[in-house]
Design a protein that fits this description.
alpha/beta, 25 strands
Length: 484
Amino acid sequence: MPIKSFVLFLALSSVITFTGASDNSDSPIKIDPTSTFGVWQGWGTSLAWWANQFGHREDLADLFFTDKYVQINGNFSSNPGLNLNIVRYNAGACSYNSFGGKQMVKSPRIPHFKQIDSYWLDWASQDPNSGSWNWTVDEPQRVAMLNAKKRGANYFELFSNSPPWWMLQNLNPSGASNGGNNLSPSHYRDHAIYMATIAKEAIKRWNITFTSVEAFNEPLGGWWKASGTQEGCHFDDGPQSSVLPMLREEMDKRGITSIPVASSDENTYDSALKTWNSFSPDVKKKVSKVNVHGYQQYFGNRKGLYQATKGKSLWNSEFGDGDASGFVMAGCLLLDLNQLHPTAWVYWQLIDGGGWGLIAGNVAKATLGRFNTKYYVLAQFSRHIRQGFRIIGVSGDQYQRTVAAYEPVKGVLVIITLNQGPARSYLYDLSAFKSVDQKVEVWTTVIRDGSKLYEKGTSNTQNKVFKAMIEEKTIQTFQFSAKQ
């Protein structure tokens, strides 16, 4: 997560006006199962900070990685599980040992829970069985990953916020003093070795096979500075182009040739497109998966990035914002699904302060607060658009606040619509399906005041047409039995 994202969120929240919000017409929204955008791989979270503090909690693992209803902290009301199946595991950069007269330089502003332990302690040996490596550190985050796997998570991405401190020019894993490149060129390959070694050792030590490895996090960001509040490291396009082939080489040397290299987790769609276009054809061949973060929110060239990276797997690998209601998140997510066409979507920190977490919590003190309404907004997506669904074509919703997904084997159709303005009716044309059952299951989250969090009801179709009245600032999910 970028330090400047909170400022961006406040600015966007104050200026966004949704054109057409007062349109109460019944213009039909046509659902087209013949137009598809790949097989949906799932929903997920990055571990890192929240898992560093809460990783041992089985109840949170149930809540996040199953679809069961779960009680948290003895709350009398149960909450619907998010059914996440993607875990992003953070390879840490911090250790407190001294070696060769050097030791880590710590930012005065970084809290301890944001310092993730490094497995590689010093440069004396590349052998993972030597004393230069410590495989017992970072237990809470690792336990969180294993708990997720026990509950069915099946995508595991290894990612780095910063290389280990001793590889850095100033020995500070929060960034360079000026926010510029901080990985020493003499350690480019060491960073690749670090990531490849963790991926290899995870198989035999933890029975985890990472499904992708990412060496960077928002590398073009200029906010990764020595006085920062988290781990981070700036990489210009050139250093990225140097490290990526090395990462592929080091993974291949260790026999993990089938694990894809991902890149580059840039902060915005526009910077992701810039970085991708800077890579040579040879570097692009090394990258099987393109990751991008959603901090540009309503703006940015999503369509351009989708077109430029066709043939590669494309994820929105990190989104977060400070709006506790979920209104901003829902609008941005729907733009992602309609324009970026990712096959997976990942929320940054499930537990965080204020509106940033789906659950508000004091991560430093490891205490939980309220469930923000945005928790239930994400549940509308993650509980219904499941792994294996296809995101299908939608036309007639000019503001792109509707998404549809279809699972052809079981014949399950899901439509999700966000009404950003006053209450209005929506008309859905389902005539492209051979048959549609009359009964419709409906789930409602009233974002404007949280009066309905995840309320279930039923409705009916008539002659492959479905009409729904959606309240002001409300998101609804409609689930049908349908045959193509």
